[in-house]
């Protein structure tokens, strides 16, 4: 699945400062900027879904 095409998110819509950070992270992780952006989005979505879970007795 190509998240970038599905969500129509393009790197050109992101501020220059954030683009620079994505480029740096992509270089460190040996991937393209688009791949890095997709990883960031997937991680963000995962964290958001965790924070939206109703409180329960998971810790008991």
Radius of gyration computed on alpha carbons: 15 Å
Helix content: 55-70%
Order of helices and strands, N to C? Answer: HHH
Distance from first to last alpha carbon:
37 Å
Low-confidence stretches: none
Mean pLDDT: 78
**Count of β-strands:** 0
> How many alpha or pi helices?
3
What does the overall shape look like?
elongated
* Secondary-structure class: mainly alpha
Describe the main β-sheet briefly: none
- Tell me the β content: under 5%
Protein described:
The protein is built from three helices and no strands. It has 60 residues and is an all-alpha fold. The radius of gyration is 15 Å and the shape is elongated. This is Arc-like DNA binding domain-containing protein.
What can be said about this structure in brief?
The chain has 60 residues and is an all-alpha fold. The protein has helices at residues 3-6, 16-28, 33-51.
List keywords for this structure.
single chain, 60 residues, 3 helices, mainly alpha, Arc-like DNA binding domain-containing protein, 60% helix
